[in-house]
Amino acid sequence: MVSDATSSDEMLPQADDAITRDGKTLILAYDHGLEHGPVDFEPNPETADPEQIFELATHDAVTSVAVGKGMAEAYYPSYEDDMALLAKLNGTSNMWVGEPDSAVNWSVDYAADLGADAIGFTLYGGSNHEVEMAEEFAEAQEKARANDMGVVMWSYPRGQGMKSTTDPDTIAYATRLGLELGADIAKVKYPGSPEAMQHAVEMAGPAKVVMSGGSKTDDEAFLSTVEAAVANGASGLAVGRNVFQRENPEEILDALEAVIFDEQSAEEALEGGTAPADD
Amino acid sequence: MVSDATSSDEMLPQADDAITRDGKTLILAYDHGLEHGPVDFEPNPETADPEQIFELATHDAVTSVAVGKGMAEAYYPSYEDDMALLAKLNGTSNMWVGEPDSAVNWSVDYAADLGADAIGFTLYGGSNHEVEMAEEFAEAQEKARANDMGVVMWSYPRGQGMKSTTDPDTIAYATRLGLELGADIAKVKYPGSPEAMQHAVEMAGPAKVVMSGGSKTDDEAFLSTVEAAVANGASGLAVGRNVFQRENPEEILDALEAVIFDEQSAEEALEGGTAPADD
Amino acid sequence: MVSDATSSDEMLPQADDAITRDGKTLILAYDHGLEHGPVDFEPNPETADPEQIFELATHDAVTSVAVGKGMAEAYYPSYEDDMALLAKLNGTSNMWVGEPDSAVNWSVDYAADLGADAIGFTLYGGSNHEVEMAEEFAEAQEKARANDMGVVMWSYPRGQGMKSTTDPDTIAYATRLGLELGADIAKVKYPGSPEAMQHAVEMAGPAKVVMSGGSKTDDEAFLSTVEAAVANGASGLAVGRNVFQRENPEEILDALEAVIFDEQSAEEALEGGTAPADD
Amino acid sequence: MVSDATSSDEMLPQADDAITRDGKTLILAYDHGLEHGPVDFEPNPETADPEQIFELATHDAVTSVAVGKGMAEAYYPSYEDDMALLAKLNGTSNMWVGEPDSAVNWSVDYAADLGADAIGFTLYGGSNHEVEMAEEFAEAQEKARANDMGVVMWSYPRGQGMKSTTDPDTIAYATRLGLELGADIAKVKYPGSPEAMQHAVEMAGPAKVVMSGGSKTDDEAFLSTVEAAVANGASGLAVGRNVFQRENPEEILDALEAVIFDEQSAEEALEGGTAPADD
Amino acid sequence: MVSDATSSDEMLPQADDAITRDGKTLILAYDHGLEHGPVDFEPNPETADPEQIFELATHDAVTSVAVGKGMAEAYYPSYEDDMALLAKLNGTSNMWVGEPDSAVNWSVDYAADLGADAIGFTLYGGSNHEVEMAEEFAEAQEKARANDMGVVMWSYPRGQGMKSTTDPDTIAYATRLGLELGADIAKVKYPGSPEAMQHAVEMAGPAKVVMSGGSKTDDEAFLSTVEAAVANGASGLAVGRNVFQRENPEEILDALEAVIFDEQSAEEALEGGTAPADD
């Protein structure tokens, strides 16, 4: 019997401290140029310029920026005092037509040299490349631990044999994979309902869960989903298109800050005003 | 002629001492979240919380807890004085639809750093990945030896060309693979009869054999099988679902302790009372 | 907020300085003997002799010569004071009939020992070998950084599932891959129109874009395309056949110098005279 | 001209001294539990116990025992003063249904640490895994040389495209592969006739050839074949089933000693009496 | 401009000095036991004995002997003062039925330890294994450079999609691959005509070209081809069967010496007398 064990939250290595604030997280992800190509910048062409995004990431709401090696090399040295870096280690263009897979584009040591605070790594559970990806994740995870970096798993079941990539059971399995394999944070798609979100969060145990923003939706639908996710245990959000494809990305960041960190409702947040200004 | 060779038991490196007691073993396995997903926790939802299991593992009957890297990182530091750690090195989600395979999610050195006493490694004999898995096992086994850690093989023939994964010949071959490849303990499914169990144990020579608990069955059927296994030479049991899917997992651990360590019959054990209390 | 960030050009590591002049670049590429075989030398048989090309590369317009290991070993020691070396690390004969792939024929360390100033690396986005090639690129890129060498990506989407390898969207994706994966310069095919070229350049952000010369065309068509590329943001040209398959390769280099470095029109350049002489 | 070269036998590194006596060899092989499973022990169930075999291997006739890592770990420390150890490095269960392949279950360095005098390595010429296996053999062979260990190749052509695995041309090719690739001893099946055996031995040049015992046959047939093999140049025998599947394994070892080391005929050896007693 | 560059021959690293004489080369190749099996020794059975070949290789005409690791280990220590060793690193039996491939049977470091002066490496351009083989070649080539060893490429296009392995374009491509990838010498089949030979030699630039002897032909045909090859720029010959399958191998070596080193015609060489005696 361990009498001094209080809560499971205390047990997990606090390796993700650098990319969370008060246990909450808002990851601004910007690897779309690799994963989807320039088409994702069409709704708001200025956002093809990475500097726009790094500027956005200085917003108080953002607890880390998730980018690939090329972006980090070119921009992070100028912004390292302003934001935490989540080094997205693997990724592949969508010209790839094979079973879901992701190239490891970045070594952990090199990411650490650039000042990264955490690593991000995609695992496609159910893909014919799952075993290979899990082994690549394992190696990166241990190197991250050696460098005192946090570990975020993009846990995205897909591939041969997966009928749905977002049903509640799949997402609950996805968060659990994060815990079982040694991630501090599992990033998953919203499983469709508050109950399913709550279940997925429980399955992650002491690991945190962040909702993936996904394709752009309207303000109300988007914020309501984030509100539901956070209300049901999610530690926050990883978001890209739902911020930078908007006309006014700072406004939605203000609203997200209100929902995630200030526990406002989506409705309150949309009414604005109460969100802290970006200083 | 070697005159001072007395029994084969003395010849085998006693590398598994840390995870046995009086030559007997009860492994509490908890890698179901990885191998099967949250569905395994549905019969007893609280057991999705790893802390419940680590608490259970403080029961006197348990000689080691078998978990993956993420679990060990999050919980073992709080429990290391209370139980031995069997680091389950490889494993894969059941979203995988290819020939049976298992990702190596954990390096032996990292497991040793976390205080693991032994490694656990799955080998799917007969799978198209058998050769690759055996080579991964070989490397892990030698690193375990270098770290004075015991070696437990989850010896599970399955895959293309295997008509049955539990017939007596298959299980006897499975335990033999453990001996031939350098495991201290071979974990196998119950081969269906006392005679088959005895044969499988003989084929393991000086290596120990533990029965795999498998899917949940009723108390009497389960304990009778364990009794038969132990009576026919098995050194004990590796169990997960047959403990944590029960309403009262501690009760079944009490009964298992009686059967495995105190050589009681299943019937006696079910009548209880004589089993030592969990202090 | 980062107040002292002025232009994105200042952010990118200036690792390509050694192979550019005033931010412009003209790469004389000569790996055709590997990629296409001797057939490419038929229009001007003397150019099968590498010495002819290395002599050509002493032309003022040329900012680097891109060759494979064998060429560099045999000739670069005699020319190292006269030109920068762009070590083309991977390449494969066109006898290869599988999905597009490219063998890594040269280690970065060996290239550095020979005095290379930058590496060149082909990535076939969309090929079934894309993931493998990207991982090879990643390793080479980091070793190049450790050796203070520039990185040029031959970003050539092709393979299963690619309907076109030159349409505007594909080329824009190709330049973006260069930026995302950590190249200083992305070498791509001309996307067919000034607007598409401009878009592709924008997608590369602070990374430079050079147009690939491609098959030989007539002087006016060729120079007009180069003019259009440069006018729309390309940093220059990587050229082989359009130089060495001509009767008078020095003349076209004179004209290219005028277009790329002196911002003359193709028409002016063809009229000649104003181009600086090759000293 | 090399005047002092006398016989080719002197040229070959004498790395196999430790596992031969007077240039003759009798390898007691006991990897059947891995390669075939417990079924091989059914004719003489006691032989499932490795200790029985290690005791047998103390017989004067036996020049080395060939076993896998698990066996060597468990028993060789007790027998290292009584016999030479031939570490059988690779092997695979017959549950494997793919093209012939063999997992490398043992590193050479680990085998050396355990006191092995030589390595044994299977090569399936003609298998779709031939190239991979040859490369694994090459690495093991060089490490064996660095450890002053002998090298025995189980040279067994089989797999796609092999019509026969025992015809004279195949066996002659098999022994030659042993010589060409750097084995000290090639272990092959009997090619069916004295002439074919002689030819196969010649093709091995200075490398030794040992006949593989194969499935159990009657005493006369077995010993006559061994007699024919030895009379035609074979250095001896590697035997398992034809010893341990017999009722009285020591008797057949007595007879084999007479045939292999004392050059008796099979008939003389069967009449017994003249064979030295096992002390 | 490099004024002191005189001839391209001076630029190439003279790494092949140890296996040439006056810029000419005659490689006695003896890897047939691996590549083809004992069938190649049937025309002259004594040549199955490697000692016969090593004795032959002491002939003045021979500038190196090309053998595999097993041969070199067993014989080269006795002959190292009499001949240069060309370590044939890769090779595979013709029992292999997959796409052309070749196992790397020998590490460069081990070859260097045995006193090898150069490495030999087969590349099957056009095979589905071309990329893999080229990468293996690249690694071996760089290690050879580090050991001051020459590099000979057996440049043999074959495999899926190759209609002819000897047409002039294929052979010209093959010699060019040698130059591009960093070989000192490219070994190719005779392309069928003097003009084609000359073209292939030109495509190799400063790298030398040696003709592969191929299957046995009659004296006049064979020597005439060698004469034509040398007259058109080949640096010599790599020969096996056309020497050792003859009744009197020394006689043909005498004649080859006359043709290759003394620039005699085939007719003159066949008349003999003028060839220097083997001392």
TrEMBL record, chains A, B, C, D, E:
Transmembrane segments: none annotated. It holds the Pfam family DeoC. GO terms for molecular function: fructose-bisphosphate aldolase activity. Its EC number is 4.1.2.13. The active site is at 156 (proton donor), 187 (schiff-base intermediate with dihydroxyacetone-p). This is fructose-bisphosphate aldolase. It comes from Candidatus Halobonum tyrrellensis G22. It is an enzyme of class 4 (lyase). Belongs to the DeoC/FbaB aldolase family. CDD domains: DhnA. Signal peptide: none annotated. It comes from the Archaea. InterPro entries: Aldolase_TIM, DeoC/FbaB/LacD_aldolase, DeoC/FbaB_aldolase, FbaB-like.
